[in-house]
Amino acid sequence: MSLDTPTRPASPAQLDWLGRELTLWQAEGLLADDQAAAIRGRYHASRRFSLGRLLLTLGALFIGVGLIWLVAANLDALPPLARFLVVCFFWLVFLVVGELLAGRRAEHAGIPSPLVGSVRLLAALTFGAVVFQAAQSLQVPAYEPFLVGIWSAGALVHAYGVRATAPLAVGIVTGVTWFVWQVLDQEPSGLAGVLAVTAAAVLLVCVGTLHEHRLADFAPLWRETGWLLALGGLFVAALPFVSADDFAWSPVLVVSVVAAALALGAATALPAGTARLEPLGTLVVLVASVGLVMWEAGNESSGPLHVDDVAHALISVGLYVLVAVGVAVLGTLRDSWRLTALSTLGLVVFTTFQSFAVFARIVEGAWLFVILGAVFLGTGFLFDRARRELAADIEGADR
Amino acid sequence: MNRSLVTRLGIVALVQLALVGVAVAPRLSAYLSGDEYRLEIAALDPIDPFRGAYVTLGYPGLTPDRSGEEIDVDVEDPPPGHLFVPLRKDGDLWVADRYVTDRPDHAPYLSCESDGWRVRCGIESWFTGQAEAARLGEQLADGSGVATVRIDGRGHAVLVDVDAG
After folding, report:
1. Is the pLDDT confidence value at A3 over 80?
2. Is pLDDT above 90 for A125?
3. What is the pTM for the complete model shown?
4. Of A224, A102, A206, A81, which is closest to residue A158 (Cα–Cα)?
5. Which of A187, A178, A186 minimizes the C-alpha distance to A145?
6. Which long-range contacts does A339-343 make (Cβ < 8 Å, 24+ apart)?
7. Nearest residue in chain B measured CA to CA from A127
8. What does the alpha-carbon distance between residue B48 and residue A143 come to, in Å, rounded to a whole number?
């Protein structure tokens, strides 16, 4: 890059750090004064950068939700066909303007534009409004999960068609919503829900892994949503009252398990080294979750506590800590604060919930808090040790 | 805007529009090519978070509990999966006597999905303004009304009018 490149935005904290390091390097004779000045000159402080992004994203979300809400308001003033055409008009405008802006931005590569992302987000949300308005105009019966599935498919087509992450986020969120809703709509059983969520986790993480080499920008969204589902699925599986009662294979569930198996095959066959461990980790979560649900101990949420119930709770906690440590290691390896935060939050909520669900039946009040505190301290200590050692080992192995 | 971008955007928009078509295909087909039939209805009134106020319609005339001898399957417990409801003219309205699992030879009939206890034929919700939905719900709770539906040759149905009588 030449010196006349436009300056890049950096947060004041980053500039402070850079300034201190540059002074050190100058003092050690690594850098000449003019070189240090040239490096400093390439950045400008920007606080509004992240604030602007936040406001633009919030604005797009509010307008998108507002448009869907307008559909729900069922404006009597306009006939159904006119309402559909108005919503279509907004969708097409956002779709085209998003790409026009992206085209202009491409000329200034290096400076990311949150505006492009927010208009694309708006287009993906407005597509949902188009689907719902079409359904409303034609009196499609209420509470139809298929419509959310169609919204998801459209958003994914948009995301892959123009290579954009904002519609991808909409597509993944609506896709997961559709899938869980569809499975529970057809077979409302605990095991079906847990199997659906963990199979979806396997599928999403595998798709994320496959994206590492192609469309790497898409990988984190798939992967992180996958781990969110994995932790959620294991959480539900460990709940004392979730059981395998009324379980049956619905067509959606069969298709999803087959899709997860195929994705797992592809994701473990293609990448080399430790990258293939991540998809296998989700498989472990799936097997562990199903095992916990099938194990009938702990199903009674009231009545006297048996040895089996305590064993069920302790093994659940142990498994959850292991998976949370794994996710935290991934967060460290991939420099993703979201994964680290996710694993910490999952662990805290899980431990608290399990302590209250199981141990609250034998100890009361103050003692429960003391025990909970001890459980936190213990798991926290093990968690941090394991995370650091594992991360160091894996990094060493990769070199 | 260069040509490849226009092409790509055009493809995205067309695929998305096609998906909207898939979402409403049975209703759209009935709306465009179906004939009109009048059915008796009863109601209650909730809200769909994405699409607003609507009236849930029940069809007393389509529940085959009146003539035991013609019923193919257990009335109390319709088989889960795809089934059909043949219609018969009864005075001014159309009624059904039975559910069948094979597609009938003659129209009109309804093509429906059953989850084992409830049969859904795609005409269970009438979306309308909030005030109108509340008014219809109240009127229908007091007595019965009449729905006009369009049904195409494949049994796809769409609601086109609701009259609380």
Report:
1. no
2. yes
3. 0.82
4. A102
5. A178
6. A339/A224, A339/A227, A342/A224, A342/A227, A342/A228, A342/A231, A343/A231
7. B16
8. 7
**Shortest Cα distance, chain B CAs vs residue A218, angstroms:** 18
Secondary structure element (H or E) that encloses residue A346, with its range: helix A337-358
The answer to whether the CB of A336 falls within 8 A of the CB of A208 is no
Nearest CA to B86 among B69, B106, B67? B106
* Surface-to-core class of residue B106, CB atoms within 10 Å of its CB (0-12 exposed, 13-18 middle, 19+ buried): exposed
Most B CBs within 10 Å: which of A70, A85, A139, as the mutation test of the B interface?
A139
List, as one string, the DSSP characters of A266-326.
HHHHSS-GGGGHHHHHHHHHHHHHHHHHHS-TT---SSPPPHHHHHHHHHHHHHHHHHHHH
Q: Check if B50 contacts A (Cβ < 8 Å).
A: yes
The DSSP letter of residue A329 is H
Cβ contact A148:A135 at 8 Å: no
pLDDT score of A1 more than 50: no
For A100, the closest of B1, B123, B160 (CB atoms) is B1
Lowest pLDDT segment from A42-51, A159-168, A382-391: A42-51
Cα-trace Rg, chain B: 19
Q: Are A129 and A72 in contact (CB under 8 A)?
A: no
Q: Which two tokens stand for residue A23?
A: 């002074």
Report the 10 Å Cβ neighbour count for A295: 17
- pLDDT per residue over A151-188, tens digit each? 999 999 999 999 999 999 999 999 999 998 988 887 77
For residue B52, what are its two tokens? 């607003």
Distance (Å, whole) CA A172 – CA A221: 8
Please name which of A42, A46, A23, A43 lies closest in space to residue A33, comparing C-alpha atoms.
A23
